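G., before I forget:
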Amino acid sequence: MSSTFDQIANIIAETCDIPRDTIKPESHAIDDLGIDSLDFLDIAFAIDKAFGIKMPLEKWTQEVNDGKATTEQYFVLQNLADRIDELVAAKNAAPGA
Amino acid sequence: MQLDYFQLIDRIVDLNLDEKKITVEAQVPTTHTIFEGHFPGFPIMPGVLLTEAMAQSSGWLILGVLKFERMPFLAIVKEAKMRGYVSPGQLLTIEAKLEHEGSGFAVTKAKIRVGKELRCSAELTFGLAPFPDPALRVHMDAMANKIGFPLQAITHD
């Protein structure tokens, strides 16, 4: 089974037509890969579907805007993969999961 | 359908919030200046307007799901397929289903039929935002009343 990072990288490559080999764990989705907010909607939909989660994009954006978090925490791909793993773990730990 | 006001939807036939589906009807006018240019001697509804009709149908569904707390704005059109001509005077039945409600966005799949025949389909993504102006909210309430939006559907859980 491929890693969370690999799954995200494949989604980004397919959604944004970015060569897969240029997408690295240390890549920043916005600053390095140039993904804009519209493309990120598409990516978020694909990630939500693939992992059965609802990424809290609005909460993350608010935290960045309020200075409580940096974009790197959410948009460097390895960090994004870690956040997704946390969301999947939380979902699996929830009652009835 | 009031093309001059970009009102593509006439009537909500069914809104099922449990299944997150909506069915609406829209009557294509028999005459309009659009048909003079699109096309002379062969008038048909432009695909962009059919896509807008699917978007407006989806929009009412999303408004219902969100209990009018946010306004959906069309952001992405995918896999829009015009499968057959739509002519002046035809009655459209438009169905939309919510595929996913994400954080700040929603995705629907919509179809237009004439009778039983499928004429168009698309996957649509909407950004969800607070109403940017009170006048828009007032307008949407008036439109909801006009097209028979079942307000009781969003007042009971």
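The domain at 2-91 of chain A is CATH 1.10.1200.10 (Non-ribosomal Peptide Synthetase Peptidyl Carrier Protein; Chain A). DSSP finds five helices and no strands in chain A.

More on Monday.
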